[in-house]
Structure of NCS2 family permease:
Amino acid sequence: MKITTPPNSLKTEILAGISTFLASFYIIIVNPAILSAAEMPFSGVLTATVLVSCFGSLMMGLYAKNPIVVAPGMGINAFFAYTAVKGYGLSYQEALGAVFWSGVIFLFLSFFNTREKIIAAIPVALRHAVASGIGLFICFIGFQNAHFIVDNPDSLVSMASFKDPINLTFLLGLLFTGVLISRKVSGAIIYGIIFTTILAWPLGRCWGDASAVNYGIPTLVNYSGLISMPDFSLLFKADILGSLQFSYLSVIFVFTFTILFDGISTFVGLSEASGLKDPDGNPRNMKRSLLTDATTTLFAGLVGSSSGTAFIESAVGIEEGGRTGATAVTAGLLFLPFMFFSPLLSLIPGIASSIALVLVGSFMLTPVTKINWKIADEAIPSFFTIVLIPFTYSLSTGISFGFVSWTLIKFFSGKQKEIHPILWIISLFSFFFLWQ
């Protein structure tokens, strides 16, 4: 990414903040849509999402002084709903408790600079593989939520019929949004969601058609206006003690691990692209930025959301000239008004929010090109990680298998020196997790 605009005025920073907000605004809709699968109230998650996004971005701007938005992360929210709650049977209160404890661990590691040592122990190829696997997982969930991919007793899954008007609406919305993104339109995902929502109105929304409701298209039967008071029903609902069961430690581990290198990868990537570095060549204000990430995750567990993390979409604002914390503060404040629009946002159909999942998933596949596929002892564990995350419908299973296979293949290939001591510990923990 080429940076061309110097940080020459407050106006530049504010405009950059608006651009970043438009690029990351989709999380207000998509996060509640995903966490609703964990039986969490849409309006409650929406309020929590806004609180996390505002809090994290303001802290990043005022404390870390970086032009980076912090909000509930994609991928980790899918793990929360579909693996922690639906897969392992945690209540959403216990899952929120696990998010809280991952924030505590994360904060400890960041405060004592331990996080960098752990990140250094994780092979770069596996980091890229995990990011790519999460992308496929999110994409798969998006197609499922849109009922474009459906159950099939013979082949497990298959594509739904093209003759279904709801699927055609989804495809039109997906194509429209893809064109906007290709033309580099700011806020393309939001425009795509609005466009698809408008297309969905003739599909029985106003009349409560059962098939439309089954496809995630809400009706106007209980519509109560555009504005309502924020829903704080999830505030302090985290079961902090209940989440400390031994069988739930693997969930806390995945929460911690995912945000552990997701945040630092974002900081490194943005600093490389923008030149926001300290005299030693490291990302600017790295420790404060990591502490912000950690504190936001802890805060997220308390207010009712999945983990918070630095958003790679912040690159949009940086491209527009954002260089200071004013950019993050502007974006953070823009989240606040949407706490009051939950009745309007809850009318967005599942086929519209699923478009964001599919396309964000495609963006997350970028790191797959950075894996050296010609080195077998790196390519094979990376491949296992990428495919097993969506195939097993479990982020933790894919990651754990990746660690174990990497360590074993390297060891029996006579490359023991390439295995970091800390990676042995992580792999051992992963093995016990898979053995359960």
Residues 129 and 243 are 29 Å apart (CA to CA). The longest strand covers residues 149-152. Residues 1-7, 205-211 have pLDDT under 50 and may be disordered. The two ends are 44 Å apart (CA to CA).
